[in-house]
Amino acid sequence: MPPKKNSFKKDKLEERILQELNSLLRTKLGDARLQFVSITKVEINEDYSVAKVFWDTFQTDKRGDASEAMKSAKSRMRNTLAQTLDLRVVPQIVLQYDAQFESEKVILDILKDEEKKGRGFK
Question: What pTM did the predictor assign?
Answer without folding.
Answer: 0.75
